[in-house]
Design goal:
It is a single chain. With 180 residues, the chain is mainly α. It has one domain. Helix content is 71%, strand content 2%. Strands 1-2 form a two-stranded antiparallel ribbon. The radius of gyration is 20 Å and the shape is elongated. 29% of the residues are buried. InterPro entries: DiS_bond_form_DsbB/BdbC, DsbB-like_sf, Uncharacterised_DsbB. Its main location: membrane.
């Protein structure tokens, strides 16, 4: 169903949709962090980084598809976005597994805090005020009954599939273009 719907769209619009979705996700998690006051755990930060990389690649793909000779570059960029989003899906699945206590948190989730530098109680209290260290299995925000990590599984997988379809359309267009 999704593939038939996307086959009616021009490839340039799919790339713009991907770019817009990624930008919306970045704006959403930054708003939740900075306006909503929800501090991210270590895995949340790991899940956010691929969006920054993919946003830059999506902008580059948006420019490269404008030139008929750069379809191979566009294909490479879209396949890279697809693979990075698939990687983000795997990280999100691990995070959901930690939230649901499928995996132990202390073996996977690590915080890069400087707790070792604490020498006394005053240092500990000062450290706790400065850094809001969250554990990866403590979910504070649910949207429609699902944690943000679970939503990230859905969104990153959707973006991976969408990028793969767009790359396939780009590849078939470039093959048809070069056969003439």
């Amino acid at each position: 169903m999704i593939k038939s719907l996307l086959s009616k769209l021009e490839n340039i619009y799919i790339i713009r949709i991907i770019t817009t979705i990624i930008a919306g996700i970045i704006i959403s998690f930054l708003t939740i962090q900075h306006v909503g006051g929800y501090a991210p755990c270590d895995f949340c930060l790991r899940e956010q980084r691929p969006y920054y990389y993919c946003f830059l690649m999506a902008i580059a793909a948006n420019f490269s598809i404008q030139n008929n000779r750069l379809y191979r570059t566009t294909f490479f960029l879209l396949m890279t976005i697809s693979l990075v989003m698939l990687y983000d899906t795997i990280i999100s699945i691990i995070h959901v597994g930690i939230e649901w206590n499928i995996w132990r948190e202390n073996t996977i989730c690590t915080n890069d805090s400087k707790i070792e530098s604490v020498k006394n109680t005053i240092d500990l209290l000062t450290h706790m005020e400065r850094e809001h260290i969250l554990r990866c299995n403590q979910t504070k925000l649910y949207i429609l009954g699902l944690s943000l990590a679970f939503w990230n599984v859905i969104l990153s997988f959707m973006l991976s599939v969408l990028s793969y379809i767009a790359a396939g359309k780009t590849s078939s267009f470039s093959d048809n273009n070069f056969k003439k």
